[in-house]
């Protein structure tokens, strides 16, 4: 094992991401090369810095999309052990064949597979920590990346230069606030104090365009609050409305009851 292979193992060990077999290789290599201990210490210190708790900073709204794009564009390195024919298919190999060395395939020591993926993930984690600020812990990061789609849509609308909103107070004292952006072509409804729909019923969202209601999906209420993104593109001047329909939405594609939430956007 060379120093680069050991560095991959050291990164995996610091991240607690090694398999039992790699864990044994890591300890055996460290025992054989104590001069590589500095690599281990550096990685442990980096992980400790990532876990340190300081004043948190809220990450940029496009972090999730940027991270997913980075993951999608990162080349995936094939594990040598998982493709025993890779050397043959390429037409050349630096290693002598079993026939040339007089050894059987079973008796030949197996070459260590490169673990560049480990170092890549380690570097990505470190860069991500710099972006979001030390102290934005792993649990908080996981929660941020896994936010509901409606919450993500609301943040995108609120960050738009032409973001608008309007609030109405309902007869039962609850409130409903519509957020929309013409540039984003999107709208989100946030309700507070609105009870959940009765069993067998759903709340259905509508864009009312002129005299035509266009279904924009159904939503549920949990704990008297809800954040629901309207499906489809919003047009300037649309009215956002909500009706009570049978569970799953109107079977006809048209409202079957009068709206109890009506919010003009013009």
From TrEMBL:
Organism: Microbacterium croceum
Record flagged with keyword Phosphoprotein: no
Domain of life (superkingdom): Bacteria
Main location: membrane
UniProt protein name: Regulator of SigK
Alphabetical keyword list: Cell membrane, Membrane, Transcription, Transcription regulation, Transmembrane, Transmembrane helix
Organismal lineage: Bacteria, Bacillati, Actinomycetota, Actinomycetes, Micrococcales
Basic and acidic residues bias: start-end ranges: 76-86
Membrane topology category: Single-pass membrane protein
Region (Disordered) residue spans: 74-112, 246-266
Pfam families for the chain: RskA_C (PF10099)
Gene3D superfamilies: Anti-sigma factor, zinc-finger domain
Segments passing through the bilayer: 120-145
Subcellular location: Cell membrane; Membrane
Residues of the Anti-sigma K factor RskA C-terminal domain: 124-256
InterPro entries, A to Z: Anti-sigma-K/W_factor, Anti_sigma_zinc_sf, RskA_C
